[in-house]
Amino acid sequence: NAGVMQNPRHLVRRRGQEARLRCSPMKGHSHVYWYRQLPEEGLKFMVYLQKENIIDESGMPKERFSAEFPKEGPSILRIQQVVRGDSAAYFCASSPSVKGGYTFGSGTRLTVV
Amino acid sequence: QKEVEQNSGPLSVPEGAIASLNCTYSDRGSQSFFWYRQYSGKSPELIMFIYSNGDKEDGRFTAQLNKASQYVSLLIRDSQPSDSATYLCAVNVPRNTGNQFYFGTGTSLTVIP
Prior knowledge:
- The complex is a heterodimer.
- Chain A is mostly beta strands.
- Chain A has no helices and eleven strands.
- In chain A, strands 2, 4, 5, 6, 9, 10 and 11 form a seven-stranded mixed β-sheet that branches.
- Chain A is globular.
- Chain A starts with a strand and ends with a strand.
- By secondary structure, chain B is mainly β.
- Chain B is 0% helix and 59% strand.
- Chain B has strands spanning 4-6, 11-14, 19-25, 32-38, 45-50, 54-58, 61-66, 71-76, 85-95, 98-103, 107-112.
- In chain B, strands 2, 4, 5, 9, 10 and 11 form a six-stranded mixed β-sheet that branches.
- In chain B, a hairpin with a 4-residue loop joins β7 (61-66) and β8.
- Chain B starts with a strand and ends with a strand.
- Classes of the chains: A mainly beta, B mainly beta.
């Protein structure tokens, strides 16, 4: 039973490029969450999705960031026109229900140069 | 006011001692409480969860919950150097959009051999 799969593990982008981060939840998990973690800081909630629906995007910046969880395929976190401040670890987590604990993926470490 | 507060540490304990990690939360509607361990450069992994007031034990780990004081703690008995990590407290709070997880910034624990 594969865990939460995130790719790529490391992503380097130049300022102004687009970053696309992918997350495949655990089998049977229909709730996906994206978090950002800056060095020496805690996990900051970004967005909560279920299949084809954004449930809560209150933690996501209004500009340049978007997320989707299509009916088929992984969840995608897209960052357009990246800036240096976007450099961080982005973690995806999934759960089987709204009450369950999260299982985290291994994260994508984004570096903007 | 932050949803979840933790002392960032660092907390240092000698090998074999008891490590005590504390967490307070602000929303009295919080329903469930989780402790995650995160090694440097790795993703958080779930250690324990607790829903009811009192103690819950799992091996060397004991989670304690006091809803009246809005306080949750994690005790690690017979601490080992391999327990050295950052410990994240997480709280599950019902919202209109579904349950929402809030994470503390984590407490860094070092177990000295």
